[in-house]
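Hi both,

Apologies for the delay on this - the queue was longer than expected. I finally got the adenosine-5'-triphosphate-bound model through. Below you'll find the protein sequence and the ligand SMILES exactly as submitted, and right after that the structure tokens for the full complex including the ligand.
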Amino acid sequence: MGNCLNSSSAKVDATLSSRTSGMSKVGSKISSSSGPSSTTISTYSGGSSSIDSVSTPRSEGEVLSSSNLKPFSFMELKNATRNFRPDSLLGEGGFGYVFKGWIDELTHLATKPGSGMAIAVKKLKPEGFQGHKEWLTEVTYLSQLHHPNLVKLIGYCSEGHNRLLVYEYMPKGSLENHLFRKGPQPLPWATRLKVAIGAARGLAFLHDAKDQIIYRDFKASNILLDADFNAKLSDFGLAKAGPTGDKTHVSTQVMGTHGYAAPEYVATGRLTAKSDVYSFGVVLLELLSGRRAVDKGKVGVEQDLVDWTKPYLGDKRKLFRIMDTRLEGQYPQKGAYTAATLASQCLNKEPKARPRMSEILASLEELQDAKNASKDHRTLSSPVPRSPVGHHRQRRSTPTASPLPTPRQSTSQVR
Ligand SMILES: Nc1ncnc2c1ncn2[C@@H]1O[C@H](COP(=O)(O)OP(=O)(O)OP(=O)(O)O)[C@@H](O)[C@H]1O
Ligand SMILES: [Mg+2]
């Protein structure tokens, strides 16, 4: 959530000047076009989830009073994070800073570090309306959506101008940290597949709900990992109710993150679940290549992961050229090729030709079942052990949200 910028990825506010001329550069969002409307969601049959109904009352008071979340006072969260100490900092996004804290599981009162339950506290930057709107959208959705592949929102703080969110702590941080930051031990192939499957389950759950939800911000930094590398989607600030009745899409202000956002959505503002599928394809490419969706540090076509990888995805013999060198060749050729083919289908220019998340999930699960990872190794050299990683504290090194001039010009958020 929020507007994070870093050198390769930044969120940008953008609105459509017209349906034909594409996006214009704006710094603020249109309040009437984003944010969820009222939805009712039935329980998803494909997993241990619980959605009864997601209703999105209009006012903050209604949202908060109808939620089953714990309301925290600012003082309680200050105590839980030891006054938002810099050494509690887990990361920074466009929304604000995220701190690690500790609370008692039953009373939810602040405890000493290391005792009770670890939490992640996201503190909204006092920057105005849009951050607050996303905060409320996140509370609205996450207070009512429960699934093993969605991060758990424990509570919130709304006191004066302070807006905070309290989540379960995810010990391995974000996928982004593991794939792109120096230091962390490279994720083995089997773990990459596991993460892709977990994230696919989260998206399939949202898309297959009776009243569909489009996530709109699928990217490596929003995939959080628990101690066993189970993936959970975080950041529901941009989530949007899917089309209803005989509508094929929802028309919205263009929001998301460049490099991940589907080109037809960026060009027209027409949002469908297939926009999330495109973003999933980009993350699959990141998992295969270990490279960011957009990397301004590279030259020419290599700056754009989708463009750069395109010629290699359908060619079994050339695929190794785009594979993450940090895998040291330790991946099943067949499995990698299947994943690359899947990515290529997700990235189809024609949204209708992209597979559904449930189909993608089934293909990935098949790959995992085939146990390709252990049987079909193409070993070039033995893996080099690297220093172990925990959850590294991060400050953003990439720019955040600012208006996005043209699609794909930078990697920032389209917001
Ligand atoms: N529940 C959590 N547990 C552990 N770490 C977390 C949790 N939530 C966020 N973080 C850490 O904080 C970082 C910043 O998160 P945040 O969602 O604010 O920004 P982001 O996802 O990097 O960017 P954006 O604002 O574009 O979503 C994450 O990348 C992650 O490392
Ligand atoms: Mg995030």
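Main takeaway for now: The longest helix spans residues 189-207.

I'll put the files on the shared drive as well.

H.
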